[in-house]
Design a protein that fits this description.
The chain is α+β, with helices and mostly antiparallel strands and 287 residues long. It folds into 2 domains: 108 residues, no CATH class; 150 residues, Alpha-Beta Plaits (2-Layer Sandwich), CATH 3.30.70. The two termini are 69 Å apart. The chain is 58% helix and 14% strand. The strands form 2 sheets. The protein has a 6-stranded mixed β-sheet, sandwiched between helices. A two-stranded antiparallel ribbon has the order 4-5. The protein is built from 9 helices and 8 strands. The radius of gyration is 36 Å and the shape is elongated. Helix 2 packs antiparallel against helix 3 and helix 6 crosses helix 7.
Length: 287
């Protein structure tokens, strides 16, 4: 197609004449060279030259006729593409116009396909309720991290008594609470921190470059804000969360996730509304 567009200055409305010109020039280059050499040396045989020229011209015409026959189906395709509610044209468009139209259609189809693939990728890696990453999106972002950034803390958070929220206030209120909590997490953490909905009422956070003290302090600050400015209430009490924090040194992420999940279980068992570090004693959510 690029060569087609580059030769558009030669008979831009007629592909057949353009092909004829290119075939004529290409096939006559040896003869033109012979002509220049003969005229410069005086050894040219004009009769023989004209005979060869005529034969070459006939061959070019036959090649052009064959190419035109091969392009005729494009005319038929252009005719078939006309909408049924339109009157058929009295003359079919030029072959070159058809090729340009078809090429434009292919480009548009490719752009549409790329956009659809991008939408599918986003849908597969984002949680539709909260707008943050889902489990698959979180793991994909972790896998894409360079080795120097694969250090920090993993935290798994779980909203306390969330089942009672659904039972007493309904699933709509539960969905609102999940979305509000996701927004609170995203707003209160650093831009470099990764937040995702892990499943149900569980969320996961990766805090790169943090040690356990820093990660616990960040989550404690959010827990304190959840009490003073709650995103929801249950039986008059502010909705809280429990969390488990584990150190990740860049090796197997599953091990860090498992350690954070065990720490979360310890926080739940100790009374909820608190943060527990993996392989350490429980720490209260607020000093």
């Amino acid at each position: 197609m690029h060569f087609y567009l580059a030769t558009s200055f030669i008979f831009p409305r007629s592909l057949r004449l353009r092909l004829f010109t290119l075939c004529f020039v290409a096939t006559h280059l040896p003869l033109l060279g012979y002509c220049v050499w003969g005229l410069s040396t005086g050894r040219i045989a004009l009769a023989e030259f004209m005979a060869v020229m005529l034969a070459t011209l006939i061959g070019t015409g036959m090649a052009l006729w064959g190419i035109g026959a091969l392009l005729n189906p494009i005319h038929a395709l252009a005719h078939a593409l006309h909408r049924k509610d339109e009157a058929p044209p009295t003359t079919l468009p030029e072959v070159g116009d058809v090729i340009r139209t078809l090429y434009s259609g292919v480009q548009q189809a490719a752009a549409t396909t790329r956009a659809q693939m991008d939408d599918l990728h986003v849908a597969a890696h984002a949680d539709p309720l909260t707008g943050i990453a889902n489990r698959r999106g979180f793991l994909a972002r972790i896998d894409a991290l360079p080795p120097t950034a694969r250090r920090g803390c993993i935290a798994i958070l779980d909203l306390d008594h969330f089942k009672q929220v659904n039972d007493q206030s309904g699933h709509d209120e539960g969905d609102r609470l999940l979305a509000a909590f996701a927004s609170r997490l995203s707003a209160q953490l650093r831009r470099v921190d990764m937040v995702a909905r892990w499943g149900g009422e569980e969320f996961v956070v990766f805090l790169p470059g943090c040690i356990e003290d820093e990660a616990s302090w960040s989550l404690s600050r959010i827990a304190s804000l959840m009490r003073s400015d709650p995103v929801g209430r249950l039986d008059g009490r502010a909705i809280s969360f429990s969390a488990g924090v584990a150190r990740w040194s860049g090796d197997n992420i599953d091990a860090a996730l498992s350690a954070a999940d065990k720490a979360l279980y310890e926080a739940k068992r100790a009374g909820r509304d608190r943060i527990c570090r993996a392989e350490s004693r429980l720490q209260p959510a607020c000093p």
